[in-house]
Amino acid sequence: MPSSLLIQTGLWALTLLVLVSAGFVVALRNLFRAALSLGLVLVGVAGLFVLLEAEFLAFVQILIYVGAILTLVVFAIMLTARVSNPRLPPRPPSGSGRQRMAAALVSAALFILLASVTRALAAAGLQPGQAVSLSQVGQELITTLVLPFELISLVFVSAMVGAIAVAASRSPR
Questions:
Q1: Crossing angle of helices 31-51/70-79, nearest 10°?
Q2: Neighbouring residues of 37: CB distance < 8 A, sequence distance ≥ 6
Q3: Which of these, 72, 94, 78, 92, lies nearest to 160 by C-alpha position?
Q4: 134-142 and 146-170 are packed helices; what angle lies between their axes, rounded to 10 degrees?
Q5: How many CB atoms lie within 10 A of CB 109?
Q6: What global pTM score does this model have?
Q7: At 24, is the pLDDT very low, low, confident or very high (cuts 50, 70, 90)?
């Protein structure tokens, strides 16, 4: 198999994985299974980054989104009362038939908009910018972006402290 055919097959396979997993994220009623499907979406996007030769973005995608954000989501799901206490009555079904139709219409309109913008950019022949090395990204992180980087870390720490506080207040004494 030629290299370009292999890459193209990989792109289509990862695209299918991302789309099917995203459909499961939206459609599944079990929050834990939806979170696992979200993990597949994030790993698929990281695979797309690798095929597009953006290895640093793939690394950040795996480290931050799959490693940190998805872990926080799973902790939040496991700390909720409905999942951890099966004796609670199930939620009544919501009248979401109209909301599903509206969401489907908005999603289709957004897809059409993004596809047309992508097609217009490709037709215009825009060239990607100059490649940025990993050392340049690291230099930016420790010089000009150090304050936002530290603020994000404080937000993550406060979220973890809040999750621990909620878990401690719900635990039986």
A1: 180
A2: 21, 22, 24, 25, 28
A3: 72
A4: 70
A5: 10
A6: 0.59
A7: very high
